[in-house]
Amino acid sequence: MNTVPEPVDPAPEADAVPTGRVAAERAVLRLARPYLGRLAGAGLLAAATEFAGLALMATATWLLMSAAGRPPLDRLTVAIVAVRALAISRGVFRYAERLAGHDAVLRMITDVRARVFATLAARRHTPHRSGDVLSRLVSDVEAVQDLLLRVLVPGAAAALVGVLAVLGAALISAPAAGVLAVGLVVAGVALPALATVVTRRSAAEVAPLRGALATDAVDLTHGAADLAAFGATDAALRAAEWRAGRLARLERRLAATGFAVDAVGVLVAGLTAAAVVLVALAADVRGVLVGVLAVGTLAAVEVALALVSAARQWTQLRPGLARVAALLDAAPPAPSPSAAGVDPSGPHDLRFVEVSVRYRVGAAPALDRLSLDLPAGRRIAVVGPSGAGKSTLAAVLTGAVRPTAGHVTLAARDLSAYGEQELPRVVGGLLAEAYVFHATVRENLLLGRAGASEAELTGASTAAGLLDWVRAQPAGWDTLVGEEGGQLSGGQRQRLALARALLAAPPVLVLDEPTEGLDPAAADAVLASALAATPAGHSVLLISHRLSGLAGLDEIVVLDGGRVIQRGRHAELVAVPGWYRDQWLLQTAAERGYLAFAPSGPVS
User: Fold this and answer.
1) Beta bridge mates, 508
2) What's the whole-model pTM score?
3) 18 pLDDT higher than 50
4) Nearest-CA neighbor of 137 among 114, 107, 103, 105?
5) Cα dist. 249→43, 205, 243, 261, 280 in Å?
């Protein structure tokens, strides 16, 4: 299979690298301030663990070498007890350090993930794909955890133990302590710097590649049918395989450089121990203490080499930390000062004035100087062929798309003046691709109106034609619907989303293809009951490709190419030649044929 090199991430990572070399770490550590006491305790426990291991090696060496001379047992008793105590305390300290460190970090990660989620949720026009967002919420946030547990805590512990090791060696021989200090500087400073240099370039590509691979995974699973329909499966697989291969090569390179640096560290430990022994012998240190210095040096340098691993880990974490820090540094969305004063009961007259939307420079407009009035309490249907601009109209109304030209007013106020928390209280409903969460029917419905009563749930479900199905389920309202409503049929999923929209009951209700996935008879019944359930004084903007059931609406607007080509009531439009009458005749004939040959029994 041919490989096609592609960019790591097609979306520009403008927010990926904060200014300043340690800005990412500072942004993350600001959130650690409430837990500094716990983290400091974890660091001290980690240092106690490493020091207990170092003392255990030195004491055990003294005990074994002294026992070789067969001294009286009482001379060895203290050392025997010390070895046992140090071995037990090392395990106890390690357990306590893990407990304290993870307790602090997991508390902090909860705050970080909540902040990241809130920032991403507030970015309506974010360029990030869903797979990349998932990577930021999972892999990149885990980098914050690793920064504390695998970099800062062990690094601080290694530095403290190194100082104590040099002081202990100085009690035996000052020259030997000086050599040990040099070895520890090489192992704890020079080698970590080398590890940072050799891994920085490769590590910088890993986090964006993981985000791109997460996007590929989402595209190849959830978008498999669309890719197959457009014949793009092979191209998507080649792109994903190229990224996976690139990531594998980078990780192999990081592993190889890590192995080389670790080998140098082992060499440094051996040379330092040999040098310490030679200097100690030259300083007239003899007997058991020479062995204690040799073994203690090996143990101390091994602890210092933890800084090499910490530096390598830090280098690999920095790109992920930068992506998280960019979100943490983003100003949280400020609630609109008038949000609390919004009266959802209206009236909310809506006006589109010469609105144009152009997604790309040079491309045909999705909406072209569209003017539309939707007074409070009025019900309008927007119909037209695919690509006519119907969904763009709904996106402009809900604030997801901003007009290129013209303006939209709601209650005599420009739509752009409504805050992100304010507009959904006035405009909402059932939009294209309404999301159904992996939760119960009740929990999905309560997203429309938190705290809704059983009677309100029943009323909305009845209007959407969902109640009979809910009552037929053993768990009733507590029936799990599966990820993205995977346990439901297409019709049941659409009814659930419609019931949620009706439960929310915004003053301006937008219904984008509310009967999608339903058979004609069920679609007409559901549309009629949904319109009947809309409170008086609330306006409705219905977007539909089906023309049946529109006779009772106040106005029907026909779009084509982003322009209004026809408008009027149903009886007026079917009486004159044009797109509406042609489609009405085609759909009526098709639905009569469907009903003549449809199988008996319930159809979703």
Assistant:
1) 427, 539
2) 0.56
3) no
4) 114
5) 35, 11, 10, 18, 46
